[in-house]
């Protein structure tokens, strides 16, 4: 009987241990993506971060590995995304051409593909991920796929047989490659007609929704990128070329008859290679919706850095099993939970908070995997995200540096001499909070502090009396968050008032709204004298 090995704290460690069994000298970890639109944080899960965590886990085991990020820029330009606001008529003529041969949607880049790839590359490093960026277009043009194409052509009958069997398709007699038409430079519109072992005859007579064949008939010797492989063969051919040992892909590829099933069959029976370990990865939803690179709700890696630290994205990705859907709240205050969970793991890592042993070890691991710049010796200063969101709204006119001073004087951060690292961390968090408020925060999180009691305010006699009482107490006594909170309950009780009604009354005076940030920390941040002045004149 086989005894199950250790209970893994983190899925990446389990994957690394499974890869270790394979006794490969060097593991090759792949991510793949077509640069037709923005690379969103959902793409980053399967194609960048999961392989990078496995890379890290292998390194911890002393096993050598390399991470490749394949950009499929030889793929067709098959639609003009709506949200890029490019002029349709400027780009229609390029439909059906490889993404690398289409002009960039924005000036200053070599091609359509180049623009989107640069956006990923510029951000990936900030997330601590440094894969080899490999262009499929260049690889084909350099002849790296020549051998694989020859194998496919020489075995095309068997390829088609497998293809039909798995997909229940009907491709009898087809030659499963895509010659690039010498007349119009498109490959989506060509049909390979015959292969004599040396030359490939084709006709450019295939019609697609987005592109029409030019009618050219020609003959070519396959090599150096004049023939492409269709996706179902391109994928296993890529494993064959690079010796891929690990990869993950969106779970839709794993459906019965899908490209994983054909890819594995082609790998074994046509390319005669061992298949890589493949794990399906689930979607990442933002506010319950799927992200799409070609529609409006994209959150790219660079977008992420406007409202959260890169460590938070890494933390989210490592703390969910790849096969679990992540539903990330961006437009609600549930967003703070991610930051809170990260801070909790940080406290556990530095021994400032205890959990049961298993959870503790797991959180420590998550924390280590989340780091971009290595671990600090001492626990970094923490500024709760919701406090940051409150402070930047209470003092909208203050600079970020002034806000740090205020936070320190109000006791929100507990340190006398801030190190450079901590100061930078705090400034960054405040800036992120500001950006989040501006771009993503829901209305109920936003507020404006009132400098005078709002004119049309309606409070009953009891509520007024309670606020007067609190004003008096604020002037007389010192409070911390907890004691002030309790005082509100105390005063409510004495006056036989419902506590929520008193809270509402306070928010109406201070914010001209019925709800707001947690009242006690808010009053302490605002300054109890100022609050007392407003409360006593209602
Ligand atoms: Zn053509």
What does this structure look like?
The protein is an alpha/beta fold. It folds into 4 domains: 11-144 and 231-282, Rossmann fold (3-Layer(aba) Sandwich), CATH 3.40.50.620; 165-228, no CATH class; 385-445, no CATH class; 461-536, Arc Repressor Mutant, subunit A (Orthogonal Bundle), CATH 1.10.10.350. The chain has 21 helices and 13 strands. It has helices at 11-20, 41-60, 88-91, 112-124, 136-141, 146-154, 156-167, 231-242, 259-269, 301-307, 310-319, 335-349, 357-370, 385-394, 400-409, 420-439, 461-476, 481-494, 499-511, 519-526, 528-536; strands at 26-33, 64-71, 132-135, 178-179, 191-195, 200-203, 217-220, 227-228, 246-250, 277-281, 284-286, 289-290, 326-328. It is elongated and about 95 Å long. The N and C termini lie far apart (77 Å). Mean pLDDT is 94; it is low at 1-5. Bound molecules: zinc ion. Zinc ion is lined by residues 181, 183-184, 186, 189, 204, 213-214, 216.
């Amino acid at each position: 009987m086989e005894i199950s090995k250790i209970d893994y704290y983190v899925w990446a460690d389990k994957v690394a241990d499974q890869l270790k069994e394979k006794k490969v000298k060097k593991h090759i970890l792949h991510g793949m993506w077509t640069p037709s639109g923005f690379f969103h944080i959902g793409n980053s899960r399967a194609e960048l971060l999961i392989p990078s965590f496995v890379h890290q886990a292998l390194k911890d085991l002393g096993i050598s590995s390399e991470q490749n990020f394949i950009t499929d820029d030889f793929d067709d330009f098959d639609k003009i995304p709506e949200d890029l606001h490019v002029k349709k008529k400027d780009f229609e003529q390029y439909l059906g051409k490889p993404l690398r041969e289409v002009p960039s949607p924005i000036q200053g880049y070599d091609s359509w593909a180049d623009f989107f790839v640069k956006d990923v590359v510029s951000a990936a490093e900030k997330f601590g991920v440094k894969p080899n960026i490999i262009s499929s277009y260049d690889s084909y043009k350099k002849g790296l796929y020549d051998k694989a194409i020859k194998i496919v052509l020489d075995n095309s009958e068997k390829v088609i047989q497998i293809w039909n069997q798995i997909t229940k398709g009907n491709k009898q007699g087809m030659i499963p490659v895509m010659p690039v038409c010498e007349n119009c430079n498109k490959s989506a519109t060509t049909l390979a007609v015959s292969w004599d072992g040396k030359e490939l005859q084709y006709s450019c007579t295939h019609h697609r929704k987005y592109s029409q064949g030019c009618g050219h008939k020609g003959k070519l010797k396959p090599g150096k990128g004049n023939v492409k492989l269709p996706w179902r063969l391109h994928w296993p051919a890529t494993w064959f070329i690079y010796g891929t040992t690990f990869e993950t892909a969106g779970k839709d590829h794993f459906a019965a008859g899908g490209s994983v099933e054909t890819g594995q069959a082609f790998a074994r029976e046509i390319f005669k290679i061992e298949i890589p370990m493949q794990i399906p990865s689930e979607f990442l939803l933002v506010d319950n919706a799927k992200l799409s690179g070609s529609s409006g709700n994209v959150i790219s890696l660079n977008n992420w850095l406007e409202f959260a630290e890169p460590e938070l994205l890494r933390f989210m990705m490592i703390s969910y099993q790849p096969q679990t859907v992540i539903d990330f709240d961006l437009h609600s205050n549930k967003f703070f939970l991610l930051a809170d969970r990260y801070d909790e793991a940080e406290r556990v890592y530095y021994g400032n908070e205890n959990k049961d042993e298993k959870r503790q070890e797991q959180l420590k691991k998550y924390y280590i995997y989340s780091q971009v710049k290595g671990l600090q010796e001492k626990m970094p200063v923490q500024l709760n995200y919701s406090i940051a969101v409150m402070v930047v709204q209470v003092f909208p006119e203050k600079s970020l540096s002034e806000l740090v001073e205020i936070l320190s004087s109000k006791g929100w951060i507990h340190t006398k001499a801030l190190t450079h690292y901590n100061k930078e961390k705090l400034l960054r968090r405040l800036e992120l909070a500001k950006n989040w408020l501006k771009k993503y925060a829901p209305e109920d999180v936003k507020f404006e502090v009132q400098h005078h009691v709002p004119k049309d305010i309606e409070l009953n006699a009891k509520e007024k009396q309670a606020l007067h009482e609190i004003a008096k107490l604020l002037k007389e006594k010192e409070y911390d968050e907890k004691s002030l909170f309790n005082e509100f309950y105390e005063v409510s009780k004495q006056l036989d008032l419902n506590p929520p009604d008193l809270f509402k009354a306070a928010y109406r005076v201070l914010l001209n709204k019925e709800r707001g940030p947690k009242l006690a920390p808010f009053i302490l941040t605002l300054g109890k004298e100022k609050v007392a002045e407003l409360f006593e004149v209602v």
